[in-house]
Design a protein that fits this description.
Blueprint (H helix, E strand, L loop, with lengths): L1 H7 L3 H43 L3 H147 L5 H80 L17 H9 L1
Helix pairs in contact: 1-3, 2-3, 3-4, 3-5
Amino acid sequence: MTEHFLFCGSTLSEIIEETEYIKKIRSTLAKVQPLLYKKESNHSIANGTLDSKLHFTESELVPDEETLSSNNEETLNRIKKVEEELLWVNKENERLKFKLEALRAAGAECVKHGSQKLQENYAKHSEDLKKRQEGVINTIKTRKLEQEQILKQSTDSLGQLSVQLNEKYGQIEELEKRVQRMEEEKKRLGEKKELLKKKLHQMMSNVESTRSCVKVQSEMCVLQEQITHLDSMIHSQHQHLHNLIHQTEGLNNELKYQDERIENLKDQIAVLQEKNNELRYQVEFYKNQSKRKISKAVCTRIDENMPYIVISRRRK
């Protein structure tokens, strides 16, 4: 602020010094004003006394003429001295008045300049902050779009996983039914083999049924081959079923991971949206605050009741 006053022609200490000097002049005027009235009153009394003396006889006038002349001259000298002092005070007051007006104008100009500078700095700061926040908003917007794209991909992947999982469940169910049918067929063939085995045991006790025994043995061999083939198929289907169950567990884990990822992405998008809205509000706020405001002018009007103004009017 001191550098503003130097720019205008006066420092703060000079303004304080001039203000104290003006107060001192006011105090002097307040003391001189009653004295002036008293001198004028004495001058009127002296003139009245002189007029009354003229009515005396010539014999009475001769002894007092020299005294009256001396008193009158002394009074006139005092009045002249007071008038000269008042004239000097008047001129000094005029000079101080103009200097005070100049100081007030300079102060008003400094305040105006400081206000403009402050407003410019504030506007620049607001504009810089606005640009930075707009950059952050664009970054957040880009990040949000990326997260939304990832969310879409994760959602699509989740849908595909759900379809694959349903297919696996269907395959497992179908395979379980197939294995169950094979188990039932194996059981039926085993029972049939046991019957043929019992029949063969009965036929072996009868020598005449040798040819029939060969036929039964052939049937038993065929049944054994079928049972062996079923065992192999059942074992293969069990392995396939185990693989399907393992794949289903993997799909379930992947599905759970995608669910958690989608929820996390939704939370991130919500946070980004909230931050984006907050930054937009701040940008609008600073945009409204950065509008130029008109500074209030500083009053430079001179008080009409100041002592030197009153004396000046009376002298005129």
